[in-house]
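Sanity check

After download, print the first record. It should look like this:
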Amino acid sequence: MELKLKDIKKDPRINSFVDQTDRYLRALNYTDHGRRHLDIVSDRSKMLANKLGLSTKDQEMASISGWCHDMGNFLGRTQHHYWGGMLFSQCYINEANPDQVSRIVQAIVSHDKDNLQLVDKITACVIIADKSDVHRNRVLNKNIKEIKTDIHDRVNYAVTDNHLRIDKQKKTITLSLTLDTKFTNIMDYFSIFVDRMNYCQKAAQYLKYKFHLKINNTKLA
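Expected C-alpha cells:
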C-alpha cells in the first residue's frame, strides 16, 4: 500500500488524533494546531519539496508528514513529536511500505527538536513549513484584551500577512511577514520566535539554501 494524503485525511484513526489534539490545546489556550495549521504546513511542505525538485513520491510524503506532524500533542506537549511518530507508525507499519512509513515518522519526530541531525530533505521541508506559520488566524482567543496579555497570541495576531517563497536561482528561502507594529513590536517577535528561525536556517542549510526573514519589507536575517 502506498500512502496518499487524500487517504490519510479520511482515516478515522488520524482524524481522531487530530481532533483530540485540537481539543487538548484549545483547553490549554494554545494557538491553532488544528486543521488550518495542518493544511498550511502540509501544503508548504509539498510546495518546498516540489520547488526543490524532489520526486512525486517524496512530495507526497512531505505533505503527509506536514499534515500529521502535530497529532501527538494530546498525549503531552513536551514530547508530542515522539508521540506523533509512534501513533503514525502504529497505524501504518503493517499496512504500508516500511521505508515510506519510516521516513514520514522521522519527519514527524524531527520537526520540533534541533538536537536531532537532519538526514532527509522531507524533514527539512516540514521544519520550515511548520515554523513559518505565524499569522493572526492562528489566534483562537477572540478577546483583544486577553490577546494583548499573552505574547504568543499578541505576536501571532499582529502578523496580518505571511508568504513563504523559494528562489532556486539565488538558493534562498524567504519568509515575508507584515507585522502590525501598533499591536506589538519586532522585538516581541524575536523573543519567542528566534529559536524557530534558527531551526529554519538549519533546515535551509541542509538543503544548501539560505533562509531569510523579512518583516514589513525589511530584511532581518
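If your output differs, re-run the checksum step. Summary of this record's structure: The mean pLDDT is 95.
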